[in-house]
Amino acid sequence: MSDIDVIATQQSAEDKAKQLPKPKGYRILCMVPHIEAKYEGGLIKAESTLSREEITTQVLFVVELGEMAYSDKERFPTGPWCQKGDFVLTRTYAGTRMRIHDREFRIINDDTVEAVVEDPRGLSHA
């Protein structure tokens, strides 16, 4: 383990949070929710299956909104489509993908949000 790896594992949650990118303009920072390692029946998923599910997920958790998100009153006359802390649905592969401390994050545009979901646990690809 390198010195950098040791420092990274010793960082507090607050220090790690400071490393998240700040979305700018009309962009939204989202986190991919945890992907279950087992199927409902108890079978363990292959690493390739977990990776594919993470990459193709349509469910994201809103972490932060850029300062201009939903500010265009012509495009969003009823106000914001989502807020920090919401689970949202987007198209598969939406956004700019990145990994931070073993979690996948995405930066999406404000008009990429298609729906807000109270409890996304029952959702799956059709």
Describe the structure.
The chain has helices spanning 3-10, 13-18, 47-56; strands at residues 27-31, 59-65, 87-89, 96-100, 103-109, 115-117. The protein has 126 residues and is α+β, with helices and mostly antiparallel strands. The chain has one domain: GroES chaperonin (10 Kd Chaperonin, Protein Cpn10, Chain O). The termini are far apart. The relative contact order is 0.22. The mean pLDDT is 88.
Short description:
The chain is of the alpha+beta class and 126 residues long. It has three helices and six strands; from the N terminus they run H-H-E-H-E-E-E-E-E. A hairpin with a 2-residue loop joins strand 4 and strand 5 (103-109).
Give the fraction of residues assigned to helices: 10-25%
Strand content: 15-25%
What integer value in Å does the Rg equal? 16 Å
Q: Quickly count the helices.
A: 3
Summing up helix and strand content along with how strands pair, one would put the structural category as alpha+beta
CATH topology: 10 Kd Chaperonin, Protein Cpn10, Chain O
Looking at the overall shape, the CATH architecture is Roll
Largest sheet: 6 strands, antiparallel
Q: Which regions have little confidence, pLDDT < 50, spanning 5+ residues?
A: none
**General shape:** globular
In N-to-C order, the SSE pattern is HHEHEEEEE
The CATH C-level class name: Mainly Beta
Strand segment tally: 6
- Distance between the terminal alpha carbons, to the nearest Å? 42 Å
